[in-house]
Each structure stands twice: as structure tokens, then as C-alpha cells.
């Protein structure tokens, strides 16, 4: 009989780790539950790889966005080909390249054979499906349109992945250029300028004002390097710990939202995410109030998330959607007009898609402009700073030569 390594929470709240024999992972989960233990994870004891041990001790990782989009696309294609849900999941297990996805899908296949719906079987933190995605899959199961809904989800996630990849690609060169510029400037100030210190000290005359400022800056930076390194090390530990606190994260998100330019970018990106999720849920047959609650959970900025939850509460009290969104201040005036029009014409899903498309277009345009301006801006700044440093040194040397 197979042997499994498990981690569970006992009735007293203690964490228990151990090994057990069971027919499969699902049976192991059930044995733990029957023993009044809450299973956290169950892994094959025969897999002694470092990654598996780390999963057990530190918590299971999640699959990537690309793997998740590919998984949805494969399931949709197999269902379209006429396979049952169980057969589609079993085949997806066989063709999955990712070890983590294979293990999670294997558990999902066992759950399906035990009568669990697909939406619940896929509710595994290793797969990291959002609540809105799982609700949409559940709606597809109820309506008999699971294949088309999986196709739409796969298409949406593939588009989001494509936009993210395009953004990363566009920022690679400016990022490398910026790091190179910073490295060159630091090298000039901390290495090149100090090489001329004996010349400056032996000059016996006052240095030009610009040279004196650069010399003072160089001396200060060199003297402060140990303190700067210590500060960076402390911040590298303290900042992630501080961001784990909900109140700190909420204040930071609110501050980012208030920044000129960046605030509008965040407002548009979160509105696009919310509108896209809400449109998919409504098309899948999810009731408006449930769809609003699930869509609000897709908002990643916590300050905006509170506004969205306030908007959902207002709708639950009978306020029209466009009025609730107006009071929450989570969309642009154009988006508000479109939502009001969609409510009045009973075409809200299509209107929400237009809002998402428009917001994503505005975001893409703004990012393209920013990245197009960033490269020449960094080049000019680097050239200007290096030129000032070189001129300050050369002017001092020329003055000294004239005195000699």
C-alpha cells in the first residue's frame, strides 16, 4: 500500500507531521479527518526530493500563471473533443509538465471520482485559482456550458499573461540601462574621484566650487558606504515583515493610490480587473450580488479593495450599481456612464467588457509612452552626471596647471 507523508492540525491546535499508509491521497485526507485532524498537505513519502521536503516544511508552492492558463486551455479542448470531465482531468494529469500541477491534478481526479464537483476539486492552493474563477467554473457546471466557460477563462488568462510579458520585455532594456548608469556614477564618485585626492590636497589653493562639491560628495559617500550597506540589509528584512501586516499594507496602498499619475494607473488597472471578472461571472449565470462579491476579491490594492467592498454592500442594500460605483469612486467618469447605460439597456456584461478593454488600452498606451521616454531620459541623466564629474576634475587640474 502506498505511503504518504502528511502535515495536519490536531484538535488542540498543534501541528503534527508524520507518515501513514493509504490507498491514495484522497483516502489519506479522509483518514486524517476521521482522526479529528485537519490535513494541511499530504505528499508521496517515496518522493524524497529537496523540493518535496521544502513543500512539506515551508508550505506548497503554486503553479505559474502560464501553467494555469495552459491547464484551462487543455481542459477546454478535451471537453470540446467529447471527453467527460473525469477523463479530461485524467488525461491532463498525464500530459502536465509541471510536477506541482501534476500532483494537484492527481488529487483533483481522485476527488472527481468520489463525486466532488470540478470547481471544488480545483480549489487547491497549489493551483492558485481565484475565487471568481472557481465560481465561474461552478456556474458552467450548473448550466452545462463548462467547456465554453473554461475556454473564456483560458483566453482571459492568456491575454493577461501576454500583457504582463510585453510589459516585462519593454522594461528589461531601461532597467539594465538604469542599473548600468547607477553603477557608472557610483564608480566615478567612489573610485575615480578619490584617485585625484592627492592632487587636490597638494594644490595649495582653493578648488573651483563645482570641484569642491563633487569632492565633498565623494568623501561623504565613501565614508557612508558601511552604514548604507547596513541600512539596505536591515530594510531588506524589515520591509517584507512590515508588509505582512494588513494595516501597513493598507496605508502603503492608500499612499500609492494618492500619487499623481501612479494613482490613475492603479485605478484603471484595478477597474479593468474588476470589470473583466464581473463580465465573465455574469455571462456564466452567476447572480449579480455574488458576482460583485467575487469580483471585488480580485482587486489587489487594499485601499481600493475597501472601496469596492463598500460598493458591494451598497448594492446589497438596493442601490443601483452605477450609483454605488459613483459613491465608491473606483472608476473613471467614462466607465460610470457606460455602466449606467449597461444597466438601463440590460447589456451589463458587454458594457463591462468594453470598460475593461478601454482601461487596458489606456494602460498599454501609457506604458508604451513611459518606456519610450525612459531610455533617452536615463541616457541624458547619466551623460549629464558623468559630464559634471569629469568637468569638475578637469577644471581643477587645469587651474592647478595654470598656477604652476
UniProtKB/TrEMBL annotation:
Q: State the Gene Ontology BP annotations.
A: protein secretion by the type II secretion system
Task: Read off the InterPro entries from this record.
Answer: GspF/PilC (IPR003004), T2SS_GspF_dom (IPR018076), T2SS_GspF_sf (IPR042094)
Question: Any one cellular component term from GO for this entry?
Answer: plasma membrane
Give one Pfam hit by family name. Answer: T2SSF
Where in or outside the cell it occurs: the entry states: Cell membrane
Q: How does it sit in the membrane?
A: Multi-pass membrane protein
- All copies of the Type II secretion system protein GspF domain together span 73-194, 274-394
- Bilayer-spanning residue ranges: 171-196, 216-243, 377-398
Q: Is Secreted set as a keyword in this record?
A: no
Q: Which domain of life is it from?
A: Bacteria
Which keywords, in A-to-Z order, does the entry hold? Cell membrane, Membrane, Transmembrane, Transmembrane helix
Family classification: Belongs to the GSP F family.
Q: What is this protein called?
A: General secretion pathway protein F
Which organism is this protein's natural source? Eilatimonas milleporae
